[in-house]
Amino acid sequence: MVKKLLVIFFLTFLFSQTTIAQSDDIRDKEILEAAETVIHDVMASPNPFSVSTRIRFFADEEIELEFFVKDLLGNTIFVQKLKSKKGANTITFYRDDLAPGIYIYSIKTENKIISKRIVIK
Prior knowledge:
By secondary structure, the chain is an alpha+beta fold. Helix content is about 30%, strand content about 45%. The chain is built from 1 helix and 7 strands. A hairpin with a 5-residue loop joins strand 3 and strand 4 (about 75-85).
């Protein structure tokens, strides 16, 4: 009888731990999904461009971010720290002395980096 009670207790304990672990996993997934949706719909226009382009994105809240541009070798050629507003945002990027070619621009928040390509003609 004692053996059966121990087995029942052990199984109950084991399944309750699994349920707790699953609920923690669900909470972690919800936190990650929330972090992913802070910045979205990132797009450069015009692209390709000659003089300047506007990087447009939407932010679900005010957030500090970093905008940077890299060449295809990974060298950072431009960095700007910004604070977004809730809703539509625009960053204007000027070509200056950059050679024609393909570059990668990124918007970096505390939890996420969104990177896309721009082309200078």
